[in-house]
Amino acid sequence: MAIPKPPDYVLAVKGQSSAQSPDTPKVILPDDEAYETARLSWNLAADQRPAAICLPTSADEVAGAIRYAGERGLRIAPQTTGHMAMALEPLDRALLLKPEFDGPRVEVDRAALSARIRGGATWGDVVGAVSEAGLTVMHGSSPSVSPFGYVLGGGLSFYGRAHGFAANRVSSFEIVTADGEIRRADSEQDSDLFWALRGAGGSFGVITGIEIGLLPLDEVFAGIGFWPMAEAPELLEIWSGWAKSAPDSVTSTFRLLRPPPLEDVPEPIRGVPVAAIDAVALDDDAGAGLVALFDDCSEPLMGGWGRQPSSAVSRLHGDPEDPLPGIGDAILLNELDADARARYISAAGAESDSSLVAAELRQLGGALGRPAENGGVLSHVDAGFMLFGIGVAFDPDSSAKTEADLDRLLAALEPFRAPRRLYGFAERDCSLEDCFGPESATRLEQIRDKYDPGHVFIAPHQAAAG
Ligand SMILES: Cc1cc2nc3c(=O)[nH]c(=O)nc-3n(C[C@H](O)[C@H](O)[C@H](O)COP(=O)(O)OP(=O)(O)OC[C@H]3O[C@@H](n4cnc5c(N)ncnc54)[C@H](O)[C@@H]3O)c2cc1C
Q1: Distance (Å, whole) CA 116 – CA 261
Q2: 183 ligand 1 Cβ < 6 A
Q3: I need a surface site. Which of 198, 214, 254, 331 has the fewest CB within 10 A?
């Protein structure tokens, strides 16, 4: 696609007045007062400076924004919260398009166990709405992540080992494609697009709504325990041994955490390096069985387990909700034998001098490892664990240290690496082929050529040529 050189088109955009045709939403330009706030992503380390920004409030306005960009030779970066903004190429030749729809953004159909989610909703909004109906949804660990980017990247949930990837719970997408058409992609209409959207991201258009299946769970067995980080080797040996034959009803994580010394961190772990284990069990006995394995370990510094409202699961992991500057990345691991465990502890544990705020192992397997019936491109993964590291990027020094510590962690576990990566967690040096293999990557490119022949949309993990 021919993209005008930056100076030409930046001038062209700057020359526009704010007045637009009725179905074109308001566009925010770099000289506008609102620009500095509107350009921010959740991940503040992504210093995105788009040529223009648009916050459409309806699917018609999204179509208007696509037209606006087309008329000015701009590419388009659809985004909701910006949790994954670090994985995007620079936006200086792009319209940043963030749907912020009017009216209720979540509608729950209790009888059909389904919710319709509209542009701008976060998982916090969705969990709040579905819990009022005594239901839950396959959300992730952070209430401030949006369901759109999450399902477009697969969606790894605390309900994953029982029910698979959240993307395969989506029954339809409403999407505005590059030609400005508002489409419904489901198992019957535009089924190729439906397949691609379930795991392979925002390269195909702007999502304005999804319909997703819900889970009839108003309570679950769940909990978390925090121990001094020095205890990590023993805890990890017990946890990884249990994981080898764990029931599918339990999904858990193991983390090495360095909580900051801030007031909103609970006192027992404020500024204290810890090892943490959390889990959700859809079977109380299975959950209690996991907890009992740690009876002979030292008392946790903090934590608790038991039945609780399923709505509480969205904050179980304690992810930061407010915007932060961070650098993270993830790979998948086949196994966690003694050598792998020693490498993990050595790279991120108590003696490591690592600055990573979290070095996280998420348990895979169960339904996450079995082909989903009529699933999307991310049907399942063949791996035992996901390793995800993240640290702060407040300034050049902390960014460099985080990058180095992240590289060290991922390199240490390289011999145990599974062939694929998870689209929604990989943030650096990742291609479609890395996530889905050569055959699916080729099919995804063909589907992109069909729905976005000009390669207008900017999304993570696109081929270098865009
Ligand atoms: C603290 C934290 C916790 C996380 N926890 C989990 C977890 O538990 N499970 C999990 O699976 N993932 C998790 N993730 C990863 C997260 O799912 C991805 O970063 C996801 O892409 C975020 O989606 P978003 O829409 O909020 O972010 P964005 O950065 O806004 O979106 C990411 C990408 O999705 C696409 N996209 C977003 N909105 C639209 C749209 N309207 N139309 C078209 N494309 C769009 C775009 O390609 C965009 O670049 C976590 C990430 C963080 C930072």
Answers
A1: 40
A2: no
A3: 214
Is 410 a domain residue?
yes
Contacts of 263 (CB under 8 A, 6+ apart): 270
The CATH code of the domain that includes 137 is 3.30.465.10
| Cβ neighbours, 10 Å, residue 146 | 28
Angle at 311 between CA 221 and CA 122, to 5 degrees: 140
Same domain, 407 and 275: yes
pTM, whole model, 2 decimals? 0.95
Containing structural domain, residue 129: 106-216+431-451
- Cα 152 versus chain centre, distance: 9
**388/288 same-domain check:** yes
pLDDT (tens, 9 = 90+) of the chain, 466 residues, equals: 333 333 233 333 433 444 455 566 789 999 999 999 999 999 999 999 999 999 999 999 999 999 999 999 999 999 999 999 999 999 999 999 999 998 899 999 999 999 999 999 999 999 999 999 999 999 999 999 999 999 999 999 999 999 999 999 999 999 999 999 999 999 999 999 999 999 999 999 999 999 999 999 999 999 999 999 999 999 999 999 999 999 999 999 999 999 999 999 999 999 999 999 999 999 999 999 999 999 999 999 999 999 999 999 999 999 999 999 999 999 999 999 999 999 999 999 999 999 999 999 999 999 999 999 999 999 999 999 999 999 999 999 999 999 999 999 999 999 999 999 999 999 999 999 999 999 999 999 999 999 999 999 999 999 765 4
Q: How many domains does the chain have?
A: 3
- Residue 115 CB–ligand 1 contact under 6 Å: no
Q: Domain end: 97, 120, 149, which one? A: 97
